[in-house]
Description:
Radius of gyration: 17 Å
CATH superfamily: Spore Coat Polysaccharide Biosynthesis Protein SpsA, Chain A
CATH topology: Spore Coat Polysaccharide Biosynthesis Protein SpsA, Chain A
Shape: globular
Number of strands: 11
Bound molecules: cytidine-5'-monophosphate
Order of helices and strands: EEEHEEHEHEEEEHHEH
Strand content: 15-25%
Number of helices: 6
Oligomer: single chain
Amino acid sequence: xxxxxxxxxxxxxxxxxxxxxxxxxxxxxxxxxxxxxxxxxxxxxxxxxxxxxxxxxxxxxxxxxxxxxxxxxxxxxxxxxxxxxxxxxxxxxxxxxxxxxxxxxxxxxxxxxxxxxxxxxxxxxxxxxxxxxxxxxxxxxxxxxxxxxxxxxxxxxxxxxxxxxxxxxxxxxxxxxxxxxxxxxxxxxxxxxxxxxxxxxxxxxxxxxxxxxxxxxxxxxxxxxxxxxxx
Length: 231
Ligand code: C5P
C-alpha cells in the first residue's frame, strides 16, 4: 500500500491581511507552500503529493513543480474540508486504492520536520483508526460562555491541540468526510470527521515549532525556525 500526501492550499488566508494568499508568501527564497510540499517530496515513503488549489489561483505556475511527476494538483472548494474532499476524490479517480493511506497537511505549516512524518507512519502499526500530530496545552485552559466570561477551568492534561499532518486510511477517511458533510457537521480537521464516524484516532506528539501561519507575527517565528533548524 502507498502513502499519499494531500495539501489543502486553496484558502485565501483572510486573517493575514495580505493581498497574496498566505501559502504564497515568501520566507527567504521560497514560498510557504514550497516548504510544506518539499518536506513530503524529500521523504522516501511518500508516494505522491496532491495539492488542492483555488480555482482562481494565479501563483502555482510560478512554483518549480511543473515537471515533477510526484506533484499533482486538483481544484479545492469553499472550505478546507471541501478542498480535502476534492483531493481524496481525485486520488480515488486516479490510481488510489482502498488500502492506501493519506497524510493531510496544511499548506500553511512550513516548519514540519521529517521526524514527525516518520512518527506518524510508525503509529499506523498500533493505530488502525489513524492519528494526528498534536501538542499538549501549555496555558491553563478556560471554558467560556458567549459573554466572554469564564464558566470553568478544564483539566489541562486532557487537552491537546491538533496540528497536521493527520494520517488515515484513504477509503475510511473519504467515507467519514463525505458523510460528515452530508449531515452538515462542522469539520475543521480530518480527525473530527473520523470521530463523527465513530473512530478514535491516536495523538502523536508533534512540535510547537510546527505552527500554522495565520497572522503576520507568525511569519517571523516561522523564519526563525526554518533558519535555525526544525528537527
Ligand atoms: O485558514 P486556515 O489556516 O484554517 O487554513 C488551513 C489550510 O487549509 C491552509 O493551508 C489553507 O490554504 C487550506 N484551505 C483550503 N481550502 C479552503 C480554505 C483553506 O485548502 N477553502
